[in-house]
Specification:
The chain contains three helices and nine strands. It is α+β, with helices and mostly antiparallel strands. It has a single domain (about 5-140), classed as Nucleoside Triphosphate Pyrophosphohydrolase, CATH 3.90.79.10. Strands 1, 2, 3, 4, 5, 6, 7, 8 and 9 form a nine-stranded mixed sheet that branches.
């Protein structure tokens, strides 16, 4: 699937601890913008969204998770790196085992290494930091 030519089904996990949320840090060279996004990724054909979420956490953070309640769905039409993209995003509440909690994680995605870290939810609500998709603010 070409994620810049088709509507892409995506699942993201909302992991909260205290008043913080676990997010991956990204950078868009075209916009010169640092942004954050919950952990997750694409749902493969014939794969349940909950299974895709577990797979993504295992692939990207090397941890097993417990998928909780379905939190909602969002349609996200946006530009990234100068290309148009269109996603339908399913959000789930996620729990990480106590022994798997770290202050930050190395995140591997598409052969690139990123950082996943805990950021205070209020920093997104106060617009100090940018989180995508913006509809996640309704869930938080």
């Amino acid at each position: 699937m070409d994620k810049f030519k088709e509507i892409r089904p995506v699942v993201l996990g909302v992991v909260k601890k205290d008043n913080k949320i676990l997010v991956s840090k990204g950078y868009d060279n075209e916009r010169k913008e640092i942004f954050y996004r919950c952990i997750g990724g694409g749902i493969d054909f014939l794969e349940k969204s909950e299974d895709a979420l577990k797979r993504e956490f295992e692939e990207e953070l090397n941890i097993n998770i417990e998928v909780g309640n379905f939190l909602g769905i969002s349609e996200n039409i946006f530009q990234y790196k100068g290309k148009n993209a269109h996603e339908l995003i399913l959000f789930y509440d996620v729990t990480i085992k106590k022994e798997d909690y770290k202050s930050s994680y190395k995140l591997l995605d598409d052969d690139d290494e990123y950082e996943a870290l805990w950021i205070e939810i209020d920093k997104f609500k106060n617009k100090e930091n940018i989180i995508y998709p913006k509809q996640i603010l309704n869930i938080l």
